[in-house]
Every structure is written in C-alpha cells, then in structure tokens.
Write a structure and sequence with these properties.
Strands 1-4-5-6-7-8-9 form a seven-stranded parallel beta sheet. The longest helix has 25 residues, at 170-194. The protein has one domain: Alpha-Beta Barrel (TIM Barrel), CATH 3.20.20. The protein is of the alpha/beta class and 344 residues long. It has helices spanning 3-8, 29-37, 40-45, 47-61, 76-79, 100-104, 112-115, 117-129, 143-152, 160-168, 170-194, 211-230, 250-256, 269-276, 294-308, 328-341, and strands at residues 65-67, 83-86, 90-93, 135-141, 198-203, 239-243, 260-262, 280-285, 314-318. The chain binds coproporphyrinogen III.
Length: 344
C-alpha cells in the first residue's frame, strides 16, 4: 500500500507523504503550453489530456498523491446550473440561484457515471499509468462552497447573497443543500467505482461562517455527505475534509466527518492536532514559503514536520493551493526535502 494511503489510515510510514493542492496547473510551463491551444474546459473534458495533466506533476516532482485534474464546479452542469470559466475573473454562473423557484429547478438527482463520464474515463486512464506507490485522489466541492458559488454567481469576498438566503429562508437553503449533497454523494461514489483511492472534499469558503451557523446550516449536510459516500463501499476509502479561513470550525468539521482534516497555515499544526484528537492531519505550509530561497523553504518545511513530530497520520501539503507564479524548481526542492527529512 502507498505511503499516502498508510498515512490516511494512521499507520506507520517510511516517509511523510506529500502532495500539493492545485499541483497540476499554471505554474507549470507544460500546462501553460497546453492552455495556449485548449480552454480549461476542453482540457478537463478530454480524458487523454486530463490524464496527462494529472500525471505531469508526479512525473516531474514525485509527489505521493496524484489529484484528478478536474474542477469542483463540473457538477453544476448535470445539476442544471449553467456556468463558464471566463478569461480573467474565474468561474461565472450564468443565472445565479436567488429564489425558491430557481432552487426548485435544480435537478433532484444526477447520474454522474453518465453526465460526468469523461471524469470517470480520466480516472481509469490515470490508474493504468500510476504505480502502486502513488495514490489517486478524487475530489468534490463541499455543498456550502458549491451553493455559495451558485448563489453569488462567482467568487465572493463576503458571501452576502448566500448568507441572505441561508439566514432568511432555512427551508429553501436546506432544499438547495440537500440537492447538492445528494449529487455530490453520487459523484464521489462514481469516482470510487472508476478507481480513485482517496477522496478530498473542498470546503474552501466555509471560513466565512461562525461556529453556530456552521452547526445549524452546514454540519447536518456534511455528516450525511460523509456517511452517504462511505455507505456499503467494498473497500474503505479515506476521505480528507479540507477547509480554510475558519480555525474555530475545525472541531465541528471533524465531528461532521473525514479520516483526515486538511488545515490551512493560519493554525498551529500541533495544537490543532491535539485539539482534534484521533484523526489524520493534512497541511499546512504557507504557500508563500515557495517564494523564499531554497534553504528558507527547507527550514519552513522542517517547522511543519517538527509540529507533526513524526506522528502517524500526517500528510504534508500547503495550507491552500499553489499559486500560478510559483517556481517549479521550488516544488522539487520541497518534495525532495520532505521525503529526505522525514525518512524513518
Ligand atoms: O491540481 C489540482 O489540484 C487538480 C485540479 C483542481 C482544479 N480546481 C483545477 C483548476 C482542483 C482540485 C480544483 C478545485 C477548485 N476549483 C476549488 C477548491 C480548491 C481551492 O483552491 O480551495 C475551487 C474554489 C475551484 C473553482 C475554480 N476553478 C476557480 C475559482 C478557478 C479560477 C481561479 C483560478 O485559479 O484560475 C478555477 C479554474 C481552475 N481549476 C484552474 C485549474 C488548473 C485554472 C484554469 C486555467 O485558467 O488554466
């Protein structure tokens, strides 16, 4: 079994496994070359291309996990919510969901095997190429993060429209979250059938909420998501529950589910792990560390390793995604250092 999967199960490892959120992307010259010819959506929807992009950071840097090249927003299409990736401002929802009628019009159920079949095809192609030493990670957006995209119509700093709906009409909010949760369960289970070996749920925007609001409006759906994905699966598939910007929420996220909690750099890894107890931890190097000279980068990586103190269940990662201006040579420095310095 790969070091990555061992760490997810909190078993002893030969070295701390590492991968990097957004490890396939614009910081890689070969990615930018492909992007000159194809749009992002064309890249994800052509399985041969998506598989090649998924594998490229593994071939170049030797991470312990490969993350499927796709996007959290792909599920909006089978849900019936039209969107596009614009050139400069990221994703845009054509008609943001702002009324009960718009929520009613969203699909009750999706058939991910069919409507997102190209993702399943990519998974099969990647699995054929990956050695047993590298785990393939599937993923989805968490219902809150997806719902807020649908409501805001794109990225947001304050999530005011999403909060307006959530706080003023809990009935409509729950209908929306239930639909998104059901679709996400179906999508993640389809990814498992196609061959992913671990799953990450990205609740990237959840840090906008208070603990009480998380408990009331989000946590019941997240619990159902984790139990729904795992129900009667043949093999136990580890799930990583990632959230950012809301340190007070980690205990509540842990209660909701996940074998590994993914934390950002704003929290102390050791204190957070102690507070969360028996669960794996993924993180949590500040992505800005990649901009420092190699020796400083190594020192900063060592500080993260020191906080984890060789405990079983640590997966090394950045605290959030790598940025497009990162230097690929620094990614190599980081991966090599974590492997060498953590060798048991
Ligand atoms: O390497 C990987 O991590 C695998 C693929 C992946 C992408 N998006 C590819 C992508 C993953 C796991 C995601 C997740 C994702 N997508 C999240 C959650 C992760 C996080 O950072 O918190 C979110 C919020 C999105 C939504 C999204 N997709 C945005 C906001 C954008 C535009 C902003 C940006 O970074 O360009 C995208 C587009 C996107 N998704 C790109 C990539 C490589 C850039 C596309 C391009 O222009 O080439």
């Amino acid at each position: 079994m790969s070091q990555f999967l061992r760490a997810c199960r909190r078993e002893p490892v030969e070295h701390t496994p590492i991968w990097v959120m957004r490890q396939a992307g614009r910081y890689q010259p070969q990615y930018r070359e492909l992007r000159k010819k194809l749009s992002f959506i064309e890249m994800v929807s052509q399985p041969e291309i998506a598989a090649q992009v998924t594998l490229s950071p593994i071939e170049q840097f030797g991470m312990d996990g490969a993350i499927l090249f796709a996007d959290i927003l792909l599920i909006l299409e089978p849900l019936g919510v039209g969107f596009e990736f614009t050139k400069n401002d990221g994703p845009r929802i054509a008609e943001p969901i702002r009324s009960a009628a718009a929520i009613d019009a969203i699909a009750e159920r999706i058939d991910a095997q069919e409507s997102l079949g190209y993702v399943m095809e990519t998974i099969k192609l990647v699995r054929r190429e990956l050695s047993e030493e590298t785990a393939l990670i599937g993923f989805a957006g968490a219902p809150f993060t997806l719902a807020s995209y649908m409501i805001e119509g794109g990225g947001s700093k304050d999530y005011l429209q999403a909060k307006k709906l959530m706080f003023s009409d809990k009935g409509a909010w729950d209908v929306l979250m239930t639909k998104v949760t059901d679709a996400t369960i179906d999508y993640l289970r389809a990814q498992v059938s196609a061959g992913v070996q671990a799953l990450q749920v990205f609740d990237s925007w959840v840090g906008a909420l208070s603990p009480d609001d998380y408990r009331t409006y989000i946590q019941p759906h997240m619990r159902r998501l984790f139990t729904g994905v795992k129900a009667d699966l043949e093999a136990d598939i580890p799930m990583i529950h990632f959230g950012t910007g809301g340190p007070m929420l980690y205990p509540l996220m842990r209660e909701a589910g996940g074998d590994v909690i993914g934390i950002d750099w704003r929290v102390d890894l050791r204190d957070t792990w102690e507070a969360l107890g028996d669960v794996g931890i993924m993180g949590n190097l500040d992505p800005g560390s990649l901009l420092t000279p190699p020796d400083t980068l190594r020192q900063r990586a060592q500080q993260v390793l020191d906080k984890a103190a060789g405990r079983n269940g640590h997966i090394f990662n950045l605290g959030h995604g790598i940025f497009p201006t990162a230097d690929p040579d620094q990614v190599k420095v980081l991966v090599d250092y974590v492997h060498e310095a953590s060798a048991r």
